[in-house]
Amino acid sequence: MKHLSLLIVLISVLGCTPTQNTRPEAESLSANQTSKVFSQPYDMRELDNGLKVIVVKTDYPGVVSLQMPIQTGSRNEVEPGKSGFAHFFEHMMFRGTENYTQEEYGAMLKEVGADQNAYTTDDYTNYHVTFINEDLELMLMLEADRFKNLKYSEAQFRTEALAVKGEYLKNSASPFSQLFETVRKNAYQEHTYRHTTMGFLEDIEDMPNQMEYSKVFFDRWYRPEKAALIVVGDVDVENTHQLIEKYFGDWERGNYVVDIPVEPPAKGSQYHHIAWDSQTLPMFGLVFRGPAADPGQKDKMAIDMLGQVYFGQNSAVYQDLVVNRQLADALFFYSPDRKDPGLIYVLARMTSAEHYPAVQEALLNTLVEARTAEPDSQKLTDIKSAARYGFANSLDNSEAIGDMLASVVQFNRDPEFINQQYEQLEAITASDVKWAANKYLVDDGRIMVTLSSDEQVSSINKDFMLSDMVAEASQPKKAMYQVTDMSNTSDIVDLNFLFNTGAAQDPEGKKGLAALTAAMITEGGSASKSIKEIQQAMLPMAAYFSSQVDKEMMSLSGRVHREKAAEYLELVLDSVLNPGFREDDFKRLKTQQINNIQTDLKQNNDEELGKEVLYQQLYKGHPYGSLNLGAVADLESITLDDVKAFYQQQLTQDRLNLGITGNLPEAQKQAMLKRITDELNAAGVKPVKIDEAPVLEGRQVTIVEKQTMPTAVSYGFPIEVNRSHPDWVALWLVRSYLGEHRNSNSFLYQRIREARGMNYGDYAYIEYFPRGMFRTQPEANLGRSEQIFQVWLRPLRSNADAHFATRTAMYEMEKLIENGLTEEQFEATRSFLSKYAGLLLKGQDRVLGYQMDSDYYGTPGFVELVSKGLDSLTLEQVNQVIRKHLQLENIHFVFITKDGEDMKSRLVNDTTSAMTYNSEKPATLLAEDEVIQDYPLNLKDADVVIKPIDEIFQ
């Protein structure tokens, strides 16, 4: 089977050769001929005996290709026991004539350096020879002689029959040959396509006994009315015709006609497994009844187009199975051009038998998509363009032109067949492709085939019905995602794609994958536009689109003016639903992420470094145990395929809450929702379970040693309280009293910063608060199942000051736990928070973000949660919460310092950390200093670990 599928071969490994020409018989090309896919001038005539002659003069000097397609192939083998005879007889055509023995014939070809061969297909047999133009008459004479005067002995016949059996056995070593043979034998019951070109083995074994039938076969089929003679090359057209008339004009016409059995309509489906005796890669295939190659009908061209759109190398399923997940090393769509209705093959060769279920699911889903959705029109345009230009590029020599014509004229002995096919291809629309899918990719006649070294394949679904799958998929899609719609009259539109996934879902050894995936979406462009093009488009809109990744949340958010919403949505939705995933963007963003860890965090931000190290230490072995940005070594090992897989498995509808606010036009909103429903994966892999934090026992210290002037301090411990907990409002009040972020009225700020001037600020938290040195208020969309209580002492001037400040914070916490808040402290803090809570929602994007956090925690809106909670709180309840959730026994401390040994010595030995001031201080403060300077932290040598900065987050 040399040729597979007309036109589409140009853009597909298993495509077919297309070919056709205009017919100017000594006429100039007309205007419309220049637009034909095959526009090479040719001269076509028919001899009185019915031989169709086509001569094409080319500009390739000296070379001539002579092709003789005979309209007999395995299709014509209607008699029982005679399958494979057309192929066998092809061999006999090289065994000599009445005028020349086989040896003499071969010697003459060798003398002129001719390159000769032949092949047999289902529909025709083609003989071809390429030579130098000075030998044109000799080659025409030799070809005419063997087509008119073929002669061979019975010994030659019987010997060649054995060679054909050897060819069959050779081919049988190929799993593909066995697969095709099995499928065709079961796909047809009446039509002669039931057997392959080689024929059935039992018929091949009987061929030595068919000497007399071979003479009948030659007499029936090797006649001029069933042949075409094609000469392409550096020839004189008229002289060539004269020579052909001279040598072929007396070839006698025949009168044999055969009735090809018509295959009845198919009913039902089949499954066949081929157990392969030797080691091989497993195969999976789905085969359907297909159309004939009739350029007067759109069916075949629509099917070829379907194959390219849904199964070509640029298709989603090919990229998924072969490129991304590498479940298969090859994926084929094979629909050969045939005179009668043929077959449509979708075949995958897998990298492991374990992949049968996944490959079957992917291919079935693609078939369902082909039957339920129309392909993108631009894709069709691109494929048509590739077909035209690929065809033109393929005809770069006389032999290629001749070979193309042979494959075309076998249908109706007219080169215009190719132009008619291309015209039909040009007319194919997206609706035609869907129509063809529903006509041919059906259950009746469907064959599922597997091939592997196993006796059977138990992991695949043998009972599916495409009709049921299509019916289910045709139902209006239901969105599996949540929508937080806070539309208002503002001209500013904010969007927030909040996915319930994040760093906690990073696979082991791939820490940082979630953050890198988010960056690839918002900073890596879409499939249709580069990030540069997107940024250029957003610049005049004053729009943006950015990402934030935490442990359980990934926020892809942006803003635009409503007048530019349509253009903006196109850019953003393409980025979210069809990310570009380009290798150069991936390398750039991965390098940036590594630099963010190595330089921005570890070298340039001691405050954030201390807080992040604290989280890492408290959550060792827990999904929260890695930095959101990841680890350097892990990032270096992450591949673009890892990013694609994370996207497919984690950024799914069932994990999405889409936030909308502002005055987004309703039509644009609905179009956005439909695109998300249609294009975003519905569900992904099962998420990693977020367990409680590891148990912290005793007081532990991590000292990070690096070149730095001050000493930064953070300490804390896990708590069971998050925003959904009944004690959260009370504990949030306690936190505010103790250390409201960047607020000079909080208690620790007053005791450490204001009273003693030791540092820039001192704060307390019960929720994750990154980027604290840059922000005065917490960001939204950092929701976590697990939280810690944390105290952050901004950098101190020395280790001694850091020691004293830590003692001060612990001393004040001890008093708070023992004594609780006073009525005055309680009321003042409650009054502050009742107003301050509203300030946290001062922008509409923050209103939206906080509402989405409330959706995550399952609580009322933030202001309502806080207001009602504060209104109902009593001092007694708050003090109970203090005693319940705050403690001093189990704490982890982190110090960032240039002298780790000195810091450790001070901590382990409880060295006095006396304070000195450059101004007078109240006696009460100095007296308190006397107590605090020796306040015991009770730290043991074994519980204090020094880590060089180079070992952190590596």
UniProtKB/TrEMBL annotation:
Superkingdom of the source species: Bacteria
Pfam families listed in its UniProt record: Peptidase_M16, Peptidase_M16_C
InterPro entries referenced in this protein's UniProt entry, alphabetically: Metalloenz_LuxS/M16, MPP/UQCRC_Complex, Pept_M16_N, Peptidase_M16_C
Gene3D superfamilies in alphabetical order: Metalloenzyme, LuxS/M16 peptidase-like
Annotated Peptidase M16 C-terminal domain residues: 217-385, 637-831
Cited SUPFAM superfamilies: LuxS/MPP-like metallohydrolase
Annotated ranges, domain Peptidase M16 N-terminal: 54-198, 487-625
Entries under PANTHER family matching the protein: METALLOPROTEASE, MITOCHONDRIAL-PROCESSING PEPTIDASE SUBUNIT ALPHA
Similarity field: Belongs to the peptidase M16 family.
Protein name per UniProt: M16 family metallopeptidase
Species assigned in the record: Marinicella sediminis
Phylogenetic placement of the source organism: Bacteria, Pseudomonadati, Pseudomonadota, Gammaproteobacteria, Lysobacterales
